[in-house]
Design brief:
GO terms for molecular function: hydrolase activity. With about 325 residues, the chain is α/β, with parallel strands linked by helices. The chain is about 40% helix and about 15% strand. It starts with a helix and ends with a helix.
């Protein structure tokens, strides 16, 4: 029996190594990774840096006159909106999908003060370049914090706001101790294919892995296999600091734009949870409570909850996500 157990362990390890070995190393700007739609770039002079910001612009055959802008989360880039963008385009919406500075195919500046206001300004520059006066803005995870800041800064540019499992529904500083950017950087450098998969299994998918999740692991884990990874890790440290130090939850009350909250209630994502006292950790990232609390704070907002769904409704339960989204924006 003992030998069978050993064989099983060896086979499991070999399978794990085989899966990881199939992940391609990716450079800082993902030059060897093809996005689902054509990629365009806007040149930005920002904080004494000459930068390029990537975006996709999907124009429908039969336009309905509306534009949707999709804002990605911290552990992602614009590529994971592929299915959402295709369905929106089929319904007549023009779709804009930026890669935020420090993410995806956009520049990875090493001397840059990351702020949600700066990212919002960069994002507005794309709309200005394309002469788009108004858009429906959908933000997921960190993109939800950015979408909130964008809406507060430029309410006249936002037709409707959708927040999908946004982080920042609570102030992480009230739970977790501060870590310096240098400490965050050292932590980011320790990431690997295995640590990223374990994180996604735990926080996104309730320890149930499906093949359809693999592309979104490949994109972030592939960076760890390339010599460019320190650049990416440094930007990740800077954006973690931005999330921790720039809460938006106190300003939800100031949003006047029609708003929809899409919340997977199984989600327990919370920045800095590992640095919080053990007695506080279980109180962080309680999305089944945070969604309701936020809905009460945003005047006139709607809340749709998906029971037993994690951090990525548009990946985990796409059909449910799409029906709710389209019903709100059609």
């Amino acid at each position: 029996m003992k030998n069978f157990k050993n064989v099983a362990v060896i086979m499991t390890a070999a399978l794990s190594i085989n899966v990881f070995s199939q992940i391609e190393p990716l450079d800082a700007e993902l030059t060897n990774y093809k996005y689902p739609f054509d990629v365009h770039f806007i040149n930005l002079k920002s904080q004494n840096n000459d930068l390029k910001m990537a975006y996709m612009d999907i124009k429908p055959r039969n336009e309905n006159g509306k534009t949707v802008m999709l804002l990605h989360g911290k552990n992602f880039n614009g590529a994971y909106w592929e299915r959402t963008a295709k369905d929106l385009s089929n319904k007549g919406f023009r779709v804009i999908i930026p890669d935020q500075m420090g993410f995806g195919k956009s520049s990875k500046p090493q001397s840059y003060q990351f702020s949600f206001s700066q990212l919002a300004e960069n994002t507005k520059a794309i709309l200005d370049e394309l002469k788009i006066d108004k858009a429906i803005v959908l933000g997921h995870s960190m993109g939800g914090m950015l979408a909130t800041r964008f809406t507060l800064l430029y309410p006249e540019r936002v037709q409707k706001l959708i927040l999908e499992n946004p982080i920042g529904l609570e102030d992480y500083k009230t739970f977790a101790s501060y870590q310096t950017i240098d400490q965050a950087y050292q932590s980011e450098l320790k990431n690997s294919v295995e640590t990223y998969k374990n994180y996604q299994l735990k926080f996104y998918y309730d320890n149930k892995w499906k093949d359809e999740y693999q592309p979104w692991l490949d994109l972030i884990a592939g960076w760890t296999l390339h010599s460019d990874y320190p650049k990416v890790a440094w930007n990740a440290a800077l954006t973690s600091d931005m999330i921790y130090n720039q809460p938006v939850c106190y300003e939800f009350k100031n949003i006047k734009t029609p708003t929809l909250l899409i919340i997977g209630t199984r989600d327990r994502t919370a920045i800095g949870k590992d640095r919080a006292p053990k007695e506080l950790q279980p109180k962080m990232g309680q999305y089944q409570e945070l969604g309701k609390k936020t809905q009460q704070e945003i005047p006139g907002s709607l809340l749709v909850e998906f029971e037993n769904v994690g951090h990525l409704p548009h990946i985990e339960v796409y059909d449910k996500f799409w029906n709710v989204l389209y019903d709100f924006i059609k």
